[in-house]
What we know:
The chain is an alpha+beta fold. The protein has helices at 6-40, 42-54, 65-75, 149-159, 167-188, 204-218, 220-232, 236-247, 270-280, 334-347, 352-381, 400-412, 414-438, and strands at residues 81-86, 95-100, 128-132, 139-144, 286-289, 297-302, 313-317, 323-327. It has 13 helices and eight strands. A four-stranded antiparallel sheet has the order 1-2-3-4, sandwiched between helices. Strands 5-6-7-8 form a four-stranded antiparallel sheet, covered by helices on one side. A hairpin with a 7-residue loop joins strand 5 (286-289) and strand 6 (297-302). Keywords: Membrane, Transmembrane, Transmembrane helix. It comes from Massilia norwichensis.
Amino acid sequence: MGPVSMGAQRRSLFWRIHFWAALIASPFVLVATLSGLLYIFTPQIEAQLYGQLERVAPQGARLPLDAAVAAARRAAPAGLEVQAVVPPARAEDAVRVSFDRPAPGASAHAGHGQPAASPRPGQGAGRITVFVDPYRGQVLGSQREQERFSEWARRLHSRLLQGDGWRWMIELGASWMLVMLLTGVYLWWPRPGQPGMPRAGRRGRAGWRQWHAFLGVLLGVLSLAMVLTGITWSRYAGENVRALRDWAGQASPQVPGGLHSMPQGAPLNWQQAWDRTRTLVPDTPPQLTPPRGPHGVWRASSADRRHPGNRFDLVLNAYDGQVLYHAGWARQTAFGKASAVGIPFHRGELGVWNQVLLFLFAASVLFSLVSGWVMFFKRRRAGLPGLPKLLPGAWRATPPAAVLLGLALCALMPLLALSAAVVLAIEAALGWRRHDAAAPA
């Protein structure tokens, strides 16, 4: 046998890595894709499930927002307090009033020196939303957030309905899916005499292979966006991403501590706070968070996930409505803007076009998984080994850029590093076995 070219060595190495990535990622990616398909169509599913709670028949003028909040208070279980209110964005929308238990350590003066904040870790497990007709002031019903279909689908997609300890599985699958994507692009890249476009007439394993490669690369940018946005809120890799974000000064602007109101006359009621917010941010449906105690502040943020560019944070004096803090899209960092668009896109929240695109993406992923395993079993039936053949010197032919990229990915994604170490150990054992088999007796 003549000398093997470095290009052939590298291709054999990347085939080998691509196979390992597929072997590890396939079960997790299959679960994530199937559960993600459910999550994509959450708006349509919830519209059917909860339409009687979320939609009303407009009739006359709306009552003041305070009337709806008062009706919700009467219907809420004892011991809960109002956490947030989402006023109706459209004529047919109900008012949503969210209740939860007070944060640990809360007192009558809670909120002095700080704005009303999001629920603390662990809080929110018993969060209840009461839906009220804004025209008649009638309570339409209530619902625990944990019982919503969207929450069930999210927990299924991220941790298989288990606790946070199971999130590692999806993170492991996403890490190796990224490797599978990068190596797949390298293997597909057209070479002289081998065009990247599929050719008609190919049958068998070659036919499966060309479509497997083409569709994978065709949706490569979308795949990359889905994997990277998923990794940003994963458990271990997500912590590293957030640390890099903060180190680079790309954290989103935060409401400063120390904002408070000085009692001066009557405080704003719910309707007045809503009117003031609409004056300052007229085009975005808000979520309102009430003051805590006499020195607390009103806080408003965007309740519209379909338009990330409308994202804002607003803090108002509880008595005269003076603006204490206001940050909109222009104040977001580049990372914050990318996250504000990428995460809703990952969830299919940007509209029907987003859902259709994600459906096509999911179908492509399923085809890639199925076609990959079809090729594997066709290879086995042809009498070839299960693992792609690794040419002599393949590991030494690794491009330096690939080594640096691999080290960077392993540093960013601890689960990838741990599982890659196991793969390298298996490869070393296989190498020693081949060496022993080839040694003269």
